[in-house]
Design brief:
heterodimer; A: about 110 residues; mainly beta; 6-stranded mixed sheet; 4-stranded antiparallel sheet; 10 strands; B: mainly beta; about 0% helix
Chain lengths: ~110, ~120
């Protein structure tokens, strides 16, 4: 299953509302996660099962969508959020795949 | 607190062998799958496969089948990723990561091991 993210790069300012899209080549619901990777660091989980926030993840992050189209929204961009974001589909019937990433720049 | 601590950076020559490690703590290591993820310089994440420390069962992504070997030693809470003939194209950061459940999302990541293959 191919995962396509858009845009590949996004320029934004502190306080902006930011939306990143992830499209799958077939339905993957509900097995969709989002990760944030700060420069030089390991990725960290933001969203699992399309829209669920793990404990400790700030509420400015939200996930939505279903089927093959999904969105990650950051309601008010913070300095910590300048990073690269990846979507991932995971299931038991096809190899796990990540999207190509979306870099959020100042 | 769940922690995955990986072995240090490696510099190897093409054709050499390598085994890197990932030690888990703060949870029942034998009951959760460990994934390995590759990130080539400036590139996206690539899912290599998973190993179950409880019985060393493995599942490889097609692109990595036959290219690497995943294993685990439950007596020391450690998972391993190894190569027998490194290539320059294996230069990357390799992350180990804990799955929430089988075929599930990654809920914790190691800090990464930088592998450089150069003549």
């Amino acid at each position: 299953i191919q995962m396509t993210q858009s845009p590949s790069t996004l320029s934004a300012s502190i306080g902006d509302r930011v939306t990143i899209t992830c499209r799958a080549s077939q339905s993957v619901s509900p097995w969709l996660a989002w990760y944030r990777q700060k420069p030089g660091k390991a990725p960290e989980l933001l969203i699992y099962r399309e829209s669920n926030l793990p404990s400790g993840v700030p509420s400015r992050f939200s996930g939505s969508g279903s089927g093959a189209e999904f969105t990650l929204t950051i309601s008010s961009l913070q300095p910590d959020d300048f990073a690269t974001y990846y979507c991932q589909q995971y299931n038991d019937y096809s190899p796990v795949t990540f999207g190509g990433g979306t870099k959020v720049e100042i | 607190e769940v922690q995955l601590v990986q072995s240090g950076a490696e510099v190897k020559k093409p054709g050499e062998s390598l085994k890197i490690s990932c030690k888990g703590s703060g949870y029942s290591f034998t009951q959760y799958w460990i994934a390995w993820v590759r990130q080539r310089p400036g590139k996206a994440l690539e899912y290599m496969g998973i190993v179950y420390p409880g019985d060393s069962d493995t599942r490889y992504s097609p692109s990595f089948q036959g290219q690497v070997t995943m294993s685990a030693n439950k007596s020391i809470n450690t998972a391993f990723l190894q190569w027998t003939g490194l290539k320059a194209s294996d230069t990357a950061i390799y992350y180990c990561a804990k799955l929430f459940d089988y075929a599930d999302y990654i809920d914790h990541w190691g800090q990464g091991t930088v592998v450089t293959v150069t003549s």
